[in-house]
Amino acid sequence: MLQLISILMENKPGALMRVTGLLTARGYNIESLTVARTMDPQLSRMSIVVDIEPGEAGDKQRMQLIKQINKLINVLQASDLTESPAVRRELALVRVRSTMQNRTSILKEAEIFGARAVDSSVEGFVLEATGDSEKLDEFMDVMRSYGEIEVTRSGMVAVALEAKKLKLAPPVVREAEIETTDGVLK
Amino acid sequence: MSSLTSGAKIVLECLQREKVEIIFGYPGGVTLPLYDAMYDSPIKHVLVRHEQNAAFAAQGFARATGKVGVCCATSGPGATNLVTGLVDAMMDSIPIVALTGQVTSKLIGSDAFQEADTFGITRSATKHNFLVKNLADLPQAMHEAFHIASTGRPGPVLVDITKDVFQGQAHYAPVSTIHLPGYKVYTEGHAGQIRRAAQMIWEAKRPFVYAGGGIIAADASEELRALVELVDAPAVCTLMGLGGLPGTHSNFVSMPGMHGSYAANMGMTETDVLIALGVRFDDRVTGRLAAFAPHAKVIHVDIDPAEIGKIRTPEIPIVGDVKRVLKKLIAALEETAGELRGKNATSRAGWWGQIKEWQREHPYNAETSADEIKPQHLMAEIDRLSGGEAIVSSDVGQHQMWGAQFIRFNHPRLWINSGGLGSMGFGLPSAIGAQFARPDKLVFAIVGDGGFQMSIPELATIANHALPVKIIVMNNGYLGMVRQWQELFYNNRLSSVQLEGFPDPEKLAGAYGFKGRTVQSPRELRGALEAAVREPGPYLLNVRVTPFENVYPMVPAGGAINEMVLGAPQPVEA
Fold it and tell me: Which of B3, B10, B43, B124 to mutate to probe the A interface, most A CBs <10 Å?
């Protein structure tokens, strides 16, 4: 089964590596991963889809993974959205080569899927489609029937429908003073 | 008044603010500015002979004191040589801070001389790491490193600092507040869960305490003792937890696991309430998981939420600092003692009877022979000399297991060994760190002939500082533990495990300016050990022991812990 994880993290060098490194080190397989800044430029939101075996062992793995990610110092919050109310979307850019005769039907078909043409040339179109992953899979199947296609998919992005309270650690005063100097070395 | 200070001096200033007194390290090209500043610093720098040993020595210091150990290495090979020591500290939750030099920030990524991606390489080897490319970020990173290393579940933190940061000049403003919004440490434990745990413990018929390295890390041995005495429960301490309960305490059963005692493993198997304190249900303790503590309800206390339910799902999970949780648990137990204490008195008396019987049936066997020194005999003699008070820094292998079985520790932080990672070459350098930390203590470095030969260069460090470490080589001429597995599981086809050509210890120690000798007669063993201890300086005692002795009891890999091989070699399916 696929586990969907949403991570709010500090936008610091190496932060992405910490998450992906953890996943690899603990034996998880990444299906997709997207990351971008949030409204606060110091923070990033990451959506990860991980392949997990179904059943009880998988449930344990899922929980373990969230706990391990939450341990990363740069991670403010990691949540499992697999079974939570959330909107999940993926974007695909599809280049379709087409003959002149097919052009109209390709556009009509795209319309059914809510996709739109973002580039058009004598060779064919580039179509932009968004939706859940299954819908995009179907869209690819349909487009493939018109000829050669090339696809770039964004991987899933998600937003939870219920805001989860963000618990943050407060600042800590680190009492460490030396008696001999006044903040300046002798 | 504020004058310009160099980055190198700021590093040392931050270390002083963190009350660091000693650094184990090895200089190099990009750390030249740091070492130049060190020339005037009150902080003592111990020059080791290999960076890996700097990390192990820092660990020895940390393990003996609970304070953060500090090691230092240059960029590239210096940093990569630290990696084993960092992973080792990670596995055993030991607080160390590693400082590494990095090439000038402008050269990063250009394959410069002695450049390595230290930040990337050590990501998974540390609890957290920093790459400091701007002098302005330096004090913050330094104090954050110490904070992260020493709080929560302790661990290693690395700070990689570019040469231009060391060389840069800045107005130094001390940092006293740090803010890591994502670093959450839960110390208190859930009050309701603690009450439930108290209830469950009083209602247990066969309670059993399983205490680990968390007890040592949290400085909770007094609380552990109070708990064990209050409920009169039998207790085991894991390899990492030895000394958490005094080795001579009447409730102490011994170490559990692959080479644990019969009573410890049977107790773990038959208990109905397992009180797991600062442990992580390591595979070397649990054996085959499906057969581990099959009748038990589990109370699991740990400061790391990810450890709870990772291996065994507990009935009562408690996330918190084990010292604080135990204090509250003891209070909760005392509150209900009047009402509940006597509840299962008969069953509990029977339980103790059973434990004692297991102990009588299969005690650890301190074998002796008139012709050769048995390893168990050696450890029993060291135990006698130590009286539960000496620091024993062990390497990895058979001697480590026999040491853990036969040497008793009456206090925490006396038994120092590489538990989780099992790094050969650990014991000698960690003894150096421990002896610097505790100059008042008798320190034994108990090493095998394999691990010793991985750390021979540090004899120079020991000699330079006249550290009175007693190096006891348990020399069986083999990589004993690997040989044991080859014997038992690979039809005794001994493949690349014989260590021929061990150097003459008298000449070897003599070459470094101290005394050494070989002992191989059981009659001379006691005298030789006593002479080593009497010697005011370092001493290298090479003890020739029976080459083909196996560590028992033994739970074969994948076996259940109650299915121990108790004695003489029997062929077992791999």
Answer: B124
Domain span including residue A45: 2-83
Active site residue B481: yes
B496 φ/ψ sector (left φ>0, alpha ψ -120 to 50, else beta): left
Distance from CA of A26 to the nearest CA of B (A): 10
pLDDT tens string B152-176: 999 999 999 999 999 999 999 999 8
pLDDT of residue B574: 52
CB atoms within 10 A of CB B490: 13
Beta carbon pairs, A and B, within 8 Å: 99
Report CA-CA distances (Å) from B126 to A22, B95, B133, B134, B365.
12, 10, 19, 22, 40
C-alpha B400/C-alpha B418 separation (Å) is 9
Residue A174, pLDDT above cutoff 90 = no
Quick check: is B90 catalytic?
no
For residues B54-81, give the mean pLDDT: 98
Question: Which one from B113, B169, B343, B357 is the annotated catalytic residue?
Answer: B113
B195 close to B136: Cβ distance less than 8 angstroms: no
Pick from B148, B275, B118, B114: nearest CA to B204:
B275
Residues in chain A: 186
Decide if B119 contacts B79 (C-beta within 8 A).
no
Under CATH, which architecture does the B375-544 domain have? 3-Layer(aba) Sandwich (3.40)
Instruction: Check pLDDT > 90 for residue A176.
Output: no
Measured in angstroms, the CA of A159 and the nearest CA of chain B are apart by 20
pLDDT at residue A99 tops 90: no
Distance, in Å, from the CA atom of B276 to the CA atom of B212, rounded to the nearest integer, reads 8
Name the DSSP letter for residue A150. E
Q: Which token pair is B380? A: 């029993």
Interface check for B428 against chain A (CB to CB < 8 A): the answer is no
Calpha distance A88→A156 (Å, rounded): 6
Supply angle C-alpha B509, B510, B512, rounded to 5: 70
pLDDT confidence of residue B73: 98
pTM of the model: 0.95
Cα separation, A132 vs B480, in Å, equals: 58
Identify whether residues A52 and A122 lie together within a single domain: no
What pLDDT does residue A180 have? 42
**pLDDT, average across residues B58-83:** 98
Q: What pLDDT is attached to residue A179? A: 43
* Domain B191-361 falls under CATH 3.40.50.1220: yes
> How distant is the Cα of A183 from the closest Cα of chain B, in angstroms?
6
pLDDT for A163: 83
* ipTM attached to this prediction: 0.93
Which superfamily does CATH assign the domain made up of B4-171 to?
Thiamin diphosphate (ThDP)-binding fold, Pyr/PP domains (3.40.50.970)
In the DSSP assignment, the letter for residue A165 is: P
Q: Which of A54, A83, A112 is the last residue of a domain?
A: A83
Single-letter amino acid code for the residue at B29: G
The predicted pLDDT at position B496 comes to 97
Q: Phi/psi of residue A112, each to 5°? A: -60, -35
The whole-number pLDDT of residue B518 equals: 98
DSSP for B491-539 reads: TT---S-B------HHHHHHHHTSEEEEE--HHHHHHHHHHHHHSSS-E
pLDDT at B567: 84
